[in-house]
Each structure stands twice: as C-alpha cells, then as structure tokens.
What we know:
This protein is of the alpha/beta class. Helices cover about 40% and strands about 20% of the residues. The strands form 4 sheets. The chain has an 8-stranded parallel beta barrel with strand order 2-3-4-5-6-7-8-9, surrounded by 7 helices. The chain has a 3-stranded antiparallel sheet with strand order 11-12-13, with helices on one face. The protein starts with a strand and ends with a helix.
Amino acid sequence: MTKERLYLFDTTLRDGAQTSGVDFSVNEKIVVAELLERLGVDYVEGGYPGANPTDTEFFSRKRTENAIFTAFGMTKRAGRSAANDPGLQEILSSSSDACCFVAKAWDYHVRVALGCSNEENLDSIADTVAATVAAGKEAMIDCEHFFDGYKANPDYALDCVRAAYQAGARWVVLCDTNGGTLPDEIFDIVTKVQDVVPGSHLGIHTHDDTGHAVANSLAAVDAGVRQIQGTLNGLGERCGNANLITLIPTLKLKSSFADRFEIGVSDDQLREITAISHAFDEVLNRSPARQAPYVGETAFTTKAGIHASAILKDPQTYEHVTPGSVGNQRRVLVSDQAGKSNLIGELNRVGIEVEKSDPRLDRLLAKVKERETEGYAYEAADASFELLARKELGDVPRFFEVNSFRVMVERRFNAIGDLLTVSEAVVKVDVDGEVRMSVAEGNGPVNALDMALRKDLGKYQSAIEGLELIDYKVRILNGGTGAVTRVLIESHDTKTHRRWFTIGVSSNIVDASFQALVDSITFALLKANAS
Length: 531
C-alpha cells in the first residue's frame, strides 16, 4: 500500500518568538534551525525579513541545508502593485526558498483591520502569490482566522482560498488563529474546503487556546490536509501552537496515521526527539515540562505498586509506545543493559564507538547518573557529555591542568567621579609541566575568567584563536541565595564555524561558570586535534 506524504512546517522562529518572555537572538535562531534540521522537518519558517534587525540578518543567507528555508510576511497592501510594495519586495529578495504570506480570510477583519474592500483583499492575495512564483520561490498563503471567517461568511472564506490556489500557491493553510475551534468543526470545514482546493495543497495551523491544537491538527489530516504547521514544544502566542514534538511521534507510531501516511522524520531522528525537545528548552533557559507527552521526564515513569508490578510482567501494560522509540527511558525497573543501550546511543550520536560489553561503560553510566543527580543535564550540553565520556573511556589528552583561579569584583569611582564595577581574574594553569599565570580584566567575573584562561596556553594558543563565548545561561536548581546553580555556555569557533554547549554545576555561580569554560576550551582543543 502506497502511503501519502505529510509535510511538516515549523513556525518556532516566528510564532514561537511571539511567546511572552521569548526573544531569539540571531545566534539562537541559528541553533534552533540546526535542531529542526536534526529533527527532519520539511519547512523552517525563520521569521519576517524587514520587520526587525534580527530577522533581516537571519535571512541575509540561507540557514538550512535540507529543509525548505521559508520567509514570512504579509500580502501586498491594497491600492499598490506588488512591484511597488517595499515590504513584499524585501521578503521576495531574502535568501529564502519559499515565502509564506498571511492573508485575511474573515470579512470582518478585512473591513476592520485592513480597511479595504473584500475584492481588494482577494486581489492582494492573488497578486502576492503571482509575484512570489515569478520570483522563483514556492508560494504559500496562511488564511488567518479562516475557521472563524468560514463560520461567519463561508462564501468569502472560500473565495480567499480559491484566489490563492488559482494564482499558483503550493500550499493554502487554514488557520485557527483564535484557537477556539473544536476537532469536529475542523473536520467538517476542511472536508468542505476540498470542493475548492484539493487536500494535497491544504495545510493546517492551529493554536492551543482550548487545549485541542494537536487534536485539531490530526482531525484536519483525517479530513484531507497534507501540511501541518506547528512549533517545538508547542511554543507560541497566548496558549501556544500545535506541538510538533507531540504530533511527530503520533504520526510515526500510531497505526491510524502511520499505516496511511509517511513524514520526513526517520526512525533514527524520532529517537532523538526527546534530546531535541530538551535542548530547545535549554536555549529558552527554562526547565523541560516533566509531564510532556512522549518526551517528558515522567512520560514513562511509574510509581511502585500495582502499576510497577504489571510493568515487571510486560511494559506494554502501562506504556502506549516503547520509550526508546522517542529517545526517552523508563524510570521504573531500568536494567543495566537498558541503561547501557541508551548510553551507547548517545555515544554513537557524538561519534564514539564502543562495544556494549566494554566494562568501562558501567563506570561511565554510573558517572552520568551521579552527575544528573547533582544537577547536570547533558541533553543540551553535548560537548560536556562527549568530554565526560572520553575521559571515562580514556580518550582525552591532557592539554592543560588548572591549578587555581581567583576573581575579584571591585566597585569604585574613577577619576572623573563615575561609578564603575571592574572584574579582575587570575588563573594558573599547568601546560606540559610548566605553570603559567595569566591576569585579565573583564566586564564581569565570567568574562574576566574567560579572558584570563584563554590568554596563554602555550603551544595550544593558536588552536583557540577563533574561540568565542557567544551565550551564557544560568538556572537556579533550588531555592535560596545558596542554591545550586547550573550554567550553560555556548561557544563558537570563527574558523570552523562549529558551535557547542558546555555545562557546569555548583553552589557557587563563578565555579559553575568556570567548569563550563574549562570544558569549552578543552573541547575546542580536542576538535582541533591539538594533541
């Protein structure tokens, strides 16, 4: 039986950026795009070129290798041509493969928000699509408020869909912008829309204001749409968008969908989905949702008692899918062998080949579990995990040893009476038996330590010349001023363009930061083959 293809369209970098408290930097957008590539989505919508400096810089060049790099924007303004609309032209001139334009599909919004006639709105949709196709880009129209518009005036909502499709849109996306439509309504309306546009050209975009975003997306697929829009971890405005991290395993593992459809996510990529979800939370500097479907810490956790007894006999009694299929793990009765299997998978992912029978794996597994108890989280700190693994497996050269460090923060008035805060760090390192002491000032204790640590590493100095610290995140793991602190540092090598994350945990924030800095430099030397 030939399966139909479903296409996954991620809007994290645009819809997700509308989340309260979320503000992506260009570097963070690059990291998230890499996570989406690793996951295997078909489209990555990167934002709105021209709307702000971040999105404009992000679209200065193509940021994906496999996914279709998509720019977002608005249809042309009424009363002017496509060629004479600066906003539209900036989107068309961006380094994107495709363009997705939002268009009003509710006549109430056309009148109130756009202030133009229904016919002018239809002309804007058609002209925008035609201009996109003429520019050699794939054209898509997001029909905003489509379901509310259909309920209010079905004929006009369908006119909007028809105008986009007949002008050459590859996808016409039906949007439940207010998030108030229920699954039975979605199914019924999508079915009727296919009298105008075939399902092979229809997409679905849902919000989670009633908690039905995933269910609504699946209902739309059942009704005939073949593109699904959503975000990582359901990020989005108000209550969020459809959660691709929940949708993807459901499409891959539930027979009612898996027997009929295929998606661009392989089984191997599906096994990375938990790590990808958690890595994205680290980018956001927030704790992963413990009870998230499929990927949450407690998704496959069972407390002692009748449930645990049943799982002893057969895990299927309380597990709807196998934890390993989504890269998660059972939290009850995890055997040493199962633990090793998970560990070997992580080792293989970072390029370390080791036999399952290798006795060193037991020590490494125990060390990882010990570290996790202390507060380390390696899902988003691959570089620190790889270093830990290689050290336990005896595969990391001794580049340098830190003998001691000291950092001082002084607040004082300068000669002209301005109040300044100055940080100074002193670091002593042993390189090939020779102790080197470096002193540096910085705009904070972490910056000062970073400068001092990288100031003089002898024969290894040239290997870290392109090293930059580009992001720094702190999370308090328990309450109080003496709380345990986790620091996540993102580093970048300007020569190789490689990015990596390292982690440190301590009750002292400076010590945690220094741990992550040492790991970062050690990882850079390891990858530079500086030994």
